[in-house]
Design brief:
Radius of gyration of chain C: 30 Å
Helix content of chain C: over 70%
Distance between the termini of chain C: 78 Å
Distance between the termini of chain A: 31 Å
Oligomer: heterotrimer
Strand content of chain A: under 5%
Order of helices and strands of chain A: HHHHHHHH
Number of helices of chain C: 3
Order of helices and strands of chain C: HHH
Number of strands of chain C: 0
Mean pLDDT of chain C: 79
Shape of chain C: rod-shaped
Structural class of chain A: mainly alpha
Shape of chain A: globular
Low-confidence stretches of chain A: 186-191
Largest sheet of chain A: none
Largest interface: A-C, 39 and 35 residues
Strand content of chain C: under 5%
Chains: A mainly alpha, B mainly alpha, C mainly alpha
Number of domains of chain A: 1
Largest sheet of chain C: none
Chain lengths: 244, 226, 80
């Protein structure tokens, strides 16, 4: 029953599966994002309060969800690598980090641009944006730690431990930031909340979210191939694999 | 002669304290840094105590965070450099007991020292004396938690060139909840509102960290030392 | 869904109710991030494949050189 799990530990299997899955993920992602963009930009009705500016939600929320999803994925892969000593776990964690960090940046930029027409400033220490900023710091910490070691195996393990410590802290940090924000929020500042969503607004959002996840899967597979090769350069199966 | 974990703990704490007091200048440096950083804010902002008072909890806590980070470097570094840490790891007590002892000793000479100096700094920033008890309690809980977060970071970066900056980069995001609740506790006490909610959360954070961090810090040392 | 095609041509779509300066840069930056991810992943994979190929060729050359060294004493006359 666990054979599929142990197959995941095999580098050639991981490499081959990633190579095969990437184009499928990419194609499906294109469909989901395409539909989401068209439906969200053209057909969804403008929001009562925010007008057409609310359409930024179609990139802001999926990227924020993805930034968190990628961090949790990285932590799960790190846990698998540390507990069962499966090196492929480190490969997945290393591949996830830059992708997640880039989407955290996207969430911050789009959130900031969304805030400008809503609050009048580009940054107002909104709890969601502040949590995203701290998440970006956590990503940078993990990537910097991995890079700081001369021995890549040691760097992998150190970064994995840090990812686990970070993932435990993410709910604590988020709760703290929300609490802090509720303390200091003046009554006159309008809360930057999601507009009340009608079905015609929600479907494109879900489609964009799904599309982003699929895109993450595709890019993860591509990076994972690189990570596997970097870690397994001398192995015999590599010769066959690179010829394709 | 076999030694139980309690005795080993006491021995290591004693050793750490003796070593620290041999270099009193190194003991005082983070405290002086704490005072200097606190001085920066009035110089940069305003000299009116009433205005400073509004900022005081935050300034106090940021200064405490930064000075604690300074002293974290020495937690494992000198012992790792001369091989003592590996000897301690092999001595049969289990590295975790050693790590708990070292971190506790480190807190005694850095965090606790900050707590004791804080009334001085608080007065300089306009914090009323009635609030000192809350302020010192929040700082005590916070610096203890920070010592543990720092132990994890120090364990991960021991032996790295320029590990100091990376240590700060790793520890500070994790310490942000501490800053939020610690400053809020003092702030609420100043406003006359009950600070107990914030203090309870700080205490919870402290217990949570003190329970789990020793294992994480030990694991970090196993990774970087082996 | 009826007037869908016309909506894109009309000016209202591109001005986004006056918020065009915020909405379009967001989607543009999203495109930048998606594009960067694809480009960066492809580049990383290609570089890793190149390094692996080079490492294997070096190993093959080493192996060939090693067997050639072994072969010299016995095939000195046939050495091309």
């Amino acid at each position: 029953m666990w054979t599929w799990f142990y197959k995941l530990a095999s580098p050639p299997y991981v490499y081959g599966t990633a190579a095969a899955l990437a184009p499928w993920f990419l194609g499906l992602a294109a469909v989901a994002i395409g539909y989401g963009l068209v439906d969200g930009l053209v057909f969804a009705p403008p929001d009562y309060q925010q007008g057409d500016a609310f359409r930024i939600i179609y990139v802001h929320v999926p990227s924020a969800w993805l930034s968190l999803f990628a961090y949790v994925g990285m932590a799960v892969a790190a846990a698998i690598a540390l507990i069962w000593r499966i090196k492929m776990g480190h490969a997945v964690a290393a591949a996830s980090a830059p992708i997640g960090a880039s989407f955290t940046l996207l969430a911050l930029v789009t959130g900031s641009l969304w805030g400008r027409p809503m609050w009048g400033t580009f940054w107002a220490w909104d709890p969601r944006l502040t949590s995203e900023l701290i998440l970006l710091f956590l990503y940078v910490g993990v990537m910097s730690l991995r890079a700081a070691f001369e021995d890549p195996a040691r760097g992998d393990r150190a970064a994995a431990l840090l990812a686990l410590v970070g993932v435990v802290n993410v709910p604590i940090i988020h709760f703290s930031v929300v609490w802090w924000n509720s303390l200091h929020q003046g009554a006159t500042v309008a809360r930057f909340g999601k507009p009340t969503m009608v079905a015609s607004m929600l479907w494109p959002l879900l489609s964009m979210a799904l599309g982003f996840m699929l895109f993450y899967g595709a890019v993860l597979c591509m990076r994972l191939q690189g990570e596997v090769l970097t870690r397994e350069r001398q192995a015999r199966w590599v010769a066959e694999a690179i010829k394709s | 002669m076999s030694v139980g974990p309690g005795e080993a703990f006491a021995l290591v704490v004693h050793r750490e304290l003796r070593l620290s007091f041999r270099r009193p200048d190194q003991l005082l440096q983070p405290l002086v840094f704490f005072l200097i950083v606190t001085t920066l804010f009035p110089l940069g902002l305003s000299l009116q105590l009433s205005l400073l008072r509004d900022m005081a909890p935050g300034v106090l806590w940021v200064a405490a965070l930064l000075s604690s980070l300074l002293s974290l470097d020495s937690l494992f570094k000198s012992d790792a450099d001369d091989g003592t840490l590996e000897q301690l790891a092999l001595c049969g007590q289990g590295l975790t007991v050693i790590v708990v002892a070292k971190t506790f000793a480190h807190w005694l000479v850095s965090g606790l020292a900050l707590v004791l100096v804080s009334p001085l700094v608080g007065t300089a920033l306009g914090i009323p004396g009635s609030v000192f008890a809350t302020m010192m309690l929040s700082l005590a809980l916070g610096t203890l938690t920070l010592s543990w977060l720092g132990a994890i970071g120090a364990g991960l970066t021991v032996g790295l060139k320029r590990g100091n900056v990376l240590l700060s980069l790793i520890v500070l995001p994790l310490a942000m909840p501490l800053l939020i609740f610690g400053a809020a506790a003092t702030d609420r006490a100043i406003s006359g509102v009950s600070a107990s909610g914030a203090l309870y959360f700080l205490a919870a954070l402290c217990v949570f960290t003190c329970t789990l961090a020793p294992f994480a810090a030990t694991a970090a040392l196993h990774i970087t030392l082996e | 869904m009826g007037g869908g095609g016309n909506q894109i041509v009309s000016a209202g779509f591109w001005s986004m109710g006056g918020y065009a300066g915020y909405v379009w840069p967001c989607f543009a930056f999203a495109g930048v991030i998606l594009g960067w991810n694809l480009w960066s992943a492809r580049r990383y994979r290609a570089a890793a494949q190149l390094k692996a190929r080079r490492a294997l060729e070096a190993a093959d050359t080493d192996r060939a050189a090693a067997t050639a060294v072994v072969a010299i004493p016995r095939t000195a006359g046939e050495q091309a």
